[in-house]
Amino acid sequence: MANSFKNSYFYISYIRRVFLSLLLCFSFGLTDEFDATWIENWQKASEILDSLKISKKQKEDILNSIKNSIKALKENENELKELETLSLCVKNGDIECAKKSIEKYPKLLSYKLHPYGSLLTVTLNMKIDKTKVDFFDEKMFDFLVSKGHRIYGDDNMLPFLLLLNEAVSDEKCLEIIKKMRDDGMDLGITMPHLENISLDTEALDNYKPKTAAYILKNGQKSQFFNAYPLKIAYGHIMVFFTENNASFEKELKATPKSIELSKSEKYKKFIDREFEVLKVYLEANGDEKFIAEIEKIFTELNDKESLEKLEKLGYKLKKDNLENIRRQNFGK
């Protein structure tokens, strides 16, 4: 069971990141070699979508949306050329260059570069693998907004890009999400084409507790919210042990390697982040029954400190697990 949960949550996280990175590649593809880049990106898009477990209709919808956006842009060649210039200015972080393009064609700020993103998405870049790092040009983002770029409009993808991007701080993300809500965004939206991903769980999943608390306080909880502790148990903790070559055995049985890892500073630092989002979850009246899965892991690891933290958060431990561990460690 542990492996099936782990694999499913890991797969969803991977698909989400690849999908969003794919969409961003079109905004970065607006160069002087637009036609060649478009063909190359289109082929790449089709290949990536073929590799994902989505329906044929979902693939067609995504590709048609991209195609329609490009067609709309090509209808006005002069503005398209200037949009290419502006896109490069934004990508390169050149505010003076961007200012000149906007002064020439102010309505470029209202254009979409692909079906889900405006120029604001060009200020973001995400890694797909561990060899790269996420990037966020905060100064350019703020500049575009100051020049009249709507911070939300009807773009339901941008808030998810901000939540997923590690370079966007929790504080900055909260600031932007608040402005998006003021601009008409419903905090209950789900990600386009990936409707099992919602703002509340995405904020928790990307360790943005302040943003998550705001979303949960001011919006309706998603249908995925109450089961979030399962994501912590199998999509975070179990994956942590697997990635550090200390996997559990079947039926959530700890191994000597996993127990040894649980005593390390690396584990303690990791688990502290999990408690940050778990605290937000419980303060938002999340269902405690799924926390039992997290408790099982801590019990197997003989992790008394983490079990005590669960108690301090108001969670009632099952089967006197903490007391049993105290007896085992009596006198040590």
Major sheet: arrangement of strands: 1-2
Q: Terminal Cα separation, in Å?
A: 34 Å
Number of strands: 6
Report the mean per-residue pLDDT as an integer: 81
**What Rg is obtained from the alpha carbons, in whole angstroms?**
23 Å
Question: Largest sheet at a glance?
Answer: 2 strands, antiparallel
- Into which percent range does the helicity of residues fall? 55-70%
Shape: elongated
User: What is the number of helices?
Assistant: 16
Low-confidence stretches: 1-11, 26-39
Structural class by secondary-structure content: mainly alpha
Indicate the proportion of strand residues: under 5%
Helix and strand pattern: HHHHHEEEEHHHEEHHHHHHHH
Characterise the protein shown here.
This protein is mainly alpha-helical and 332 residues long. The protein is built from 16 helices and six strands. The chain has helices spanning 2-28, 34-51, 56-74, 77-91, 95-104, 138-146, 158-164, 170-182, 199-205, 209-218, 228-243, 256-261, 265-283, 291-300, 304-312, 321-328, and strands at residues 112-114, 117-118, 124-125, 135-136, 190-191, 194-198. The strands form three sheets. The chain has a two-stranded antiparallel sheet. Strands 3-4 form a two-stranded antiparallel ribbon. Helix 8 (170-182) runs parallel beside helix 10, helix 9 (199-205) packs antiparallel against helix 10 and helix 10 (209-218) runs parallel beside helix 13 (265-283). The longest helix has 27 residues, at 2-28.
